[in-house]
Amino acid sequence: PMIDEEFYRVKRLPPYVFAEVNAMKAAARARGEDIIDLGMGNPDTPPPAHVIEKLAEVARKPDAHGYSASKGIKGLRKAQAAYYARRFGVELDPETEVVVTLGSKEGLANLAQAITAPGDIILAPNPSYPIHAFGFIIAGAAIRHVPAAPGPEFMKSLENAVRYSVPKPTAIVMGYPSNPTAQVVDLDFYAEVVDFCRKHEIWVLSDLAYAEIYFDNNPPPSILQVPGAKDVAVEFTSMSKTYSMAGWRVGFAVGNKKLIQALTRVKSYLDYGAFTPIQAAAVAALNGPQDCIEQARQLYKQRRDVLVESFARAGWDVPPPPASMFAWVPVPAPFREMGALEFSKKLLTQAQVAVAPGVGFGELGEGYVRIALVENEHRIRQAARNIRRFFQAEGLNVPGPKAAAE
């Protein structure tokens, strides 16, 4: 009987791999274990004080509690346009080229709903942030994978996709700095992609959530800096990581007028926009002092350096990420056979450290785990000590105690 069957769309979603590790984590915590959680990219620092002040101030206004504007209040759209002008030298029309989203996840998923016809083929990186593929899978598309890393292989796979896919791909999703791989790209790469996609009439969806978290002197570019990019591209950004406002759910889509209009239209049926005080506080974040961003950058950089150094002493080499709040780390050789998911479970039960198994980001993430820089330096060192003990218990040769001395 029909009532016992899985729903079609739900059936098309694979099990959310992280749910398995999260359930184990919750169980361990319930048993009273102290789990060092480097799994989810959940910022552990609060937003700037002036942003919270603004939230409270506007929330006290009697007229701030009605329906807000689905596409975002005008002041917030203007603030985002000002940010793009300041940071990227890109001019945006706040009326037609900017829409406020409930975090970039919602924006991506609803843009997928807006532009996807059943059976469309969408190009998405593998490994990548799950919504990049599943937003489109939920909308009824088929996904064809392209490599997550930029370079000749990437362009080759685009050419193959256009040559061999039936129907021809309608859109490509990209995100740099990448979650989970922390990979960064330069403007030349974007120029090549824009050129290709304009020629073949493919929409480009760029996810720039980690634009402000980078550790060398190269601020990640926006794809919209490429001349002509607006003909095909739309870009998502988020307040989550930049201002530690993850739970506030404020993001943006900007760029191509036709895509922004489609997203705005679909959204207008589905939501009334974020709570007005949240939007007003987001304006204060974008237009106010920006030293909090530099502080966040320094904080993540210090944690990254402590992670790399302390894990190396525990006998686990961590390639230092150039950007993002994640390290993308090969599973240590002795555990490679068991796969990333089993290794992550073992790390949780034996070392009380939670990480995200790479396979949760796509099959090409197998053999890796993603480590989030969301605990303080003291806790990261503690994690390294736990891991070193776990490696020793497994009979692995780890560096001698002299090397591991704190």
Can you walk through the features of this model?
The protein is an alpha/beta fold and 406 residues long. It is built from 15 helices and twelve strands. The chain has helices at residues 8-11, 17-30, 49-59, 74-88, 103-115, 130-138, 152-164, 187-200, 239-242, 257-270, 276-287, 291-314, 339-351, 377-393, 401-404; strands at residues 36-37, 98-101, 121-126, 142-147, 171-175, 203-207, 233-238, 251-255, 326-330, 353-354, 356-357, 368-372. The strands form three sheets. It has a seven-stranded mixed sheet, with helices on both faces. Strand 3, helix 6 and strand 4 form a beta-alpha-beta unit. Helix 2 (17-30) runs parallel beside helix 13 (339-351), helix 3 (49-59) runs antiparallel to helix 11 (276-287) and helix 12 (291-314) runs parallel beside helix 14 (377-393). The longest helix is centred in the last third of the chain and has 24 residues, at 291-314. The radius of gyration is 22 Å and the shape is globular.
List the helices and strands and how they pair.
Blueprint: H1 8-11, H2 17-30, E1 36-37, H3 49-59, H4 74-88, E2 98-101, H5 103-115, E3 121-126, H6 130-138, E4 142-147, H7 152-164, E5 171-175, H8 187-200, E6 203-207, E7 233-238, H9 239-242, E8 251-255, H10 257-270, H11 276-287, H12 291-314, E9 326-330, H13 339-351, E10 353-354, E11 356-357, E12 368-372, H14 377-393, H15 401-404
Parallel strand pairs: 1-10, 3-4, 3-5, 5-6, 6-7
Antiparallel strand pairs: 2-8, 7-8, 9-12, 11-12
Helix pairs in contact: 2-13, 3-11, 4-11, 5-6, 5-10, 12-14
